[in-house]
Amino acid sequence: MIKKIAFNIFLNIAIIILAFIIVWSVKNQQYGYTAAGICSVAIFVYLKIKLVKQVREMTRKGVNSKD
Prior knowledge:
This protein has helices at 2-27, 31-66. The relative contact order is 0.13. It has two helices and no strands. By secondary structure, it is mainly alpha-helical.
């Protein structure tokens, strides 16, 4: 579970940093960086959603097995 928490923190930080990079690249008309940032954010958001679903399933199984 510690690995999943650490991975979640990494994903949050990566998404925030990439958001700043996208804003910077649009302001400075560096559209290559914008495209790369948007693709990276999409991948990280996908991974975050997948991780949240895994953790939710783990907690449901944990709650049901204790009954």
